[in-house]
Amino acid sequence: MPKVPELEKATVRIQQPERVLGTIRAIKEQGINKLQVISDFDMTLSRFGCNGRRCPTSHNILDNSRVISEDGKKKLRDLLHYYYPIEIDPNRTLEEKRPLMVEWWTRAHELLSQQKIQKGDIAQIVRESDVMLRDGFNELFDQLHKYNIPLFIFSAGVGDILEEIIRQANVFYSNVNVVSNYMDFDDNGVLTRFKGPLIHTYNKNNSVLQGTEYFQQLSTRTSIILLGDSMGDLTMADGVPSVENILKIGFLNDKVGVRSSRLASAPAFPRCEASGDSGEGQAAVPVIQGVQEILQAAGGCMEGLGVSAELPVRLGLCQGGY
Ligand code: TMP
Ligand code: MG
């Protein structure tokens, strides 16, 4: 059985190590030409916290920006304080959460659409924000590009904002495809509404990909690495026509104790122990190094990754669930 030392770190939890190592071995054997990566954006590719403070989601970047009125900011904050605890509540079912998430996104998008946001201001809004990509993820983008491995970013955030983040980080390469909520601007470049279909945390599955040929075109790429931080992210690969090997990597950012024990006992995720320790989910080091191992053995080479610091990371890793 292959060893992946980075995945043995204390902050990494694997419910069925043998099975995960088997998956990693199979991905290696299949090679990089069979591999594709599917990832969430907010709090997965971007950081959850920094120096004890939360980092913004792509929605929060807009909410906190100078283009939103004080009244608008307050209303958006009130929505966040009401709905976010519901989003991450381990005691509610997905069926309970779904209509409430539709409500949150619809109300937030309506408020944002009343703020006369200019398309031309987006780049500056992102530059002035506190958003950060997770440590090591720039290198991941570089390596995936170098080896022509498709990266599909499936986000319930704001597409225009997240594209600008990765553009400013110089990693919006040709192998990156984004499906997200996009803004609709009028002829004067003023935001009037969001385009459909609405993507929220718990419909990130095939239902919102209809009409896109993305996964069909990649039908020979049957090895998947999936990265996420929410239970809703577990279905992101459902549209892939034939999955031979899938490794699901989850970052457990918030309410670590409660959510990890809940995940561990959830019947739907019998193989998942989930995990976490103190910290802000800020470093992706073991994951990045683990993925590096996989790519290396699969024919790629991720030398010069440049990430070695032992920063705290909250991470769950398992197969089948986080
Ligand atoms: P995702 O990471 O699953 O793509 O989800 C996007 C995140 O955006 C989700 O955790 C909730 C958050 N969000 C806000 O922060 N503000 C908002 O107004 C909305 C609608 C969502
Ligand atoms: Mg997320």
Automatic annotation (TrEMBL):
Top-level enzyme category: hydrolase
The UniProt entry's GO CC annotations, sorted and at most eight, read: cytoplasm
A Gene Ontology biological process noted in the UniProt record is: nucleotide metabolic process
Q: What is its EC number?
A: 3.1.3.5
Fetch the InterPro entries from UniProt: HAD-like_sf, HAD_sf, Pyrimidine_nucleotidase_eu
User: Which GO-annotated molecular functions does the record name?
Assistant: 5'-nucleotidase activity; magnesium ion binding; nucleotide binding
- Which family does the entry's similarity section mention? Belongs to the pyrimidine 5'-nucleotidase family.
Subunit and partners: Monomer.
Name used for this protein in its record: 5'-nucleotidase
What is the species of this protein?
Answer: Falco tinnunculus (Common kestrel)
Phylogenetic lineage: Eukaryota, Metazoa, Chordata, Craniata, Vertebrata
